[in-house]
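Dissemination and training. As part of the outreach component of the grant, students in the summer workshop were shown how a complex can be specified as a set of sequence lines and then modelled as a single object. The example used during the hands-on session is reproduced here so that future cohorts can follow it. Participants entered these lines:
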Amino acid sequence: MALIKEIDYGTPAPRVPDGLAVASVTLTIDGQSVTVPEGTSIMRAAQLAGTTIPKLCATDNMEAFGSCRMCLIEIDGRNGTPASCTTPVANGIVVHTQTDKLKRLRNGVMELYISDHPLDCLTCAANGDCELQDVAGQVGLREVRYGYEGRNHVFAKKDGQANPDFLKKDETNPYFTYDPSKCIVCNRCVRACDEVQGTFALTISGRGLDSRVSPGQNDPFLSSECVSCGACVQACPTATLTEKAVIDIGQPEHSAVTTCAYCGVGCTFKAEMRGETLVRMVPWKDGKANRGHSCVKGRFAWGYATHRERITKPMIRASIHEPWNEVSWEEAIRHTASEFKRIQDKYGKRSVGGITSSRCTNEESFLVQKLIRQGFGNNNVDTCARVCHSPTGYGLSQTYGTSAGTQDFDSVEDTDVILVIGANPPDAHPVFASRMKQRIRPISEGGGGAKLIVIDPRKTDLVRSAHIEADFHLPLRPSTNVAMLNALAHVIVTEGLVQEDFVRERCDWEEFQEWAEFVARPEHSPEAAEPHTGVNPADVRGAARLYATGGRAAIYYGLGVTEHSQGSTCVIAIANLAMATGNIGRKGVGVNPLRGQNNVQGACDMGSFPHELAGYRHISNDVVRKQFGDMWGVELDAEPGLRIPNMFDAAVDGVFKGMYVQGEDILQSDPDTVHVSAGLAALECLVVQDLFLNETATFAHVFLPGCSFLEKDGTFTNAERRIQLIRKVMTPKNGYADWEVTQLLAREMGLDWTYEHPSQIMDEIAALTPTFANVSFKMLEEKGSVQWPCNDAAPEGTPTMHIDKFVRGKGRFMLTEYVPTDEKVGPRFPLLLTTGRILSQYNVGAQTRRTANSTWHEKDVLEVHPQDAEDRGVREGDLVTLRSRAGTIALHATITEKVAPGVVYTTFHHPETQANVITTDYSDWATNCPEYKVTAVQVTLANGPTEWQQRYDIFARESRRVNAEPAE
Amino acid sequence: MAHSLFDDAEHITTTSGERLIYMANQISKFFVSQPHDKAVKGMTKHIADFWDPRMRQRIRDHAAAGGAGLEPLALEAISALQK
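and obtained this result:
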């Protein structure tokens, strides 16, 4: 295995808008005829033909800059020596990339670069990965005549005095260093921050010899606006910006392409290794989800995989009040299987169940649900999508016939109007947000000039940030999404903006008419909605007109849509809106659910829901159930099983007694912690499989150590239905991949599983699931990735859904009556709490809290509007009590206008805070997806942690004790 | 010891029975805007598709005993459940 190195073509491929043809251009480069698309640079054309022109400031994920003077060429009949990066191809021209003149020019410029660059190459961290060194070699630099005595940036001292041009290394960022003495001012870092990431945190201050890369106003990196995405580090051709891990370990020697285990964007990375030591994760340029970009989590926050708190030995105990005992794998598995058998004998077949993990692979989720259906003999299986995107599954299936998001991420490049509702991509889906921002930035700034509508109670970063401003921000009251969407639909219908041709051809006309009559009623007008939503009706009308008439319009949404008591209704309302305006079935449009976890899409696809088998087919479907039953040699239960909240209810009722939880921390992530903990405490056997003793494990009787995504093979499916491989680059610390652990348990339960590799599990999935029919590891190795459905009808996969017709045939409009939530503010609880996440932390924080990412966010804080803060005497940083009808916690307040008056906001990344003590048992009517986004609360000044927090802390500490000696 | 964890006087709990009634009513509020027959059918199918057998049995028993607290549409839809 070697180090994977992608070819750098120097400049990006010219972008071709969907539906336009592009002309070809033929030219001659070094005597060779080359044909490329119009708009290609000569540098790129040369590289495509296999000729590398020396370059320093050019790289193919950003626009040409033309500053380094290395890539000069000569063209017959043209004067001078133009830069090949900024000169486009033309028909018939004859280009020379190497002449005496060019050699002399390049050599001279290189000499100047090196005259102000240290020559400590042997001890330099970039040794072996330095483009400056490579180019010096390419241009034949043999001497530097200028000496180092003059003005320079290289030495701390000059003539015994401090050198005023020398700047100290900035080591404030936990993951990389900035060493100004090695900078050649190529601007690649600045351009990466602007063009690729879109944060505009870096600039070049000064001129001439004073030019410096400067974060913000000469701030240290850590306190600047830098979001630590790593794009600048990747872009740097020298050791100026270098990963600390590379400085520490040295250059990697081999690499494997794998998929990030954080969010649903599904970035692919090269895991660059020395032996079994991970040196760095570098975004893979051919990754179709991330196109070579990354964020602070995937790029840097992987240290948790080898964190000292990882549990690597199985443990069991008789009761949760006892300390844990380490046991062998054999004993742990034997004990677990005998407990599940005992419980089923005593309480019946349906008294046990399990939860598949959105963090584990497709193959692992498939096996857990198979164990439950085939081995336990019931359908009590659910997954964390229950608490995030289950309403998407319901709403889109009902209207379009499949829960699939309709597009790929590339689609955003053809979008004219972006409508974001209940999502905060810069924090939760950062890499996709960068691509979205590229599309939104004005054309004059090199962007795509798309219009932007944001519907969100908070003034998120998308509403206004560097070179981005929403055309409309509709800051609605939490819980009023459906009223808002009905108002938008009202405007579209009553102002005659419906795409009637599309609706007549593609949708059920009768149901459309029913819907049109419904939304046209005066009670759905923006004016009538205002008392609910609090949003200016003129803005609603403006936004509706823009969405309906602004060209290709795409809706992106997140948990701010689904996590409501009307989550499913809201998804349906979104689907209606896209159909009514004809924004379905081609590039640049569509309905795009932004999924939270790395494999939440996959977990759902794999049949993790209690009512359906892999590929979203209902368990009551006799034909499908028989297929599975025949292959597995059992008759499957035809009745839907329990959903997660139903499991807790059944546990409290005393009829649900055993649970196998793989890779999910339900105690911290699920709402109404008091209720969840009561449910967990009522279990006789709770089995937790995880990397760490998470919060759920405090109630567990068996702990099966899990392994990280670096330690196993498998596939993840991202938010755009893209199936991608993860590859094992190190030996599992716990001894087994997670799928192997499930298999051990299944065998002990008497099932004859004989999988030797996850690829065999995928083969079984493909055989049973029509949308996966042509998927195999071999195919993924060849293609890199594929979007399902992938079968004989769509052998290359399906980037865009519903092109000629909807999956269900005719698109179905459904009525979406606005029903106000029962979670209402009143004198006792006058504020509305809404919850979410921030960039540096991830979900329950089990991974990111065990990395230096906590430098950016060491605790959950409560965002309070200045007015609400003043009314309560709360100042910045004060400890406050947050109280709802479900519980009380204490946390620190921060005062910000990001939240509207009457609304407070916090994250749920830290178990000490336990934000979910506050959230209630209200849930979506169709799917029981919890209403995380709306809780009526009161905020008061606090003296210290609440009683609950103190009691829980003591309990959790006691519960985590491990006996020193293995019990015999 | 662990049980003291749950003795939170301020925590408002509902029983699982109350929750079933609440959930049924919530479902009915989605379907109620549809034409009556379609609404009853839709809601009946929804419960048959997504509720586990014990939950269905309990809500049917409740409906058979008069269905106190159930919205009219919910009561009608539950009474139409086959099993």
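Residues 27 and 38 of chain B are 14 Å apart (CA to CA). Students were then asked to discuss how this feature might be tested experimentally.
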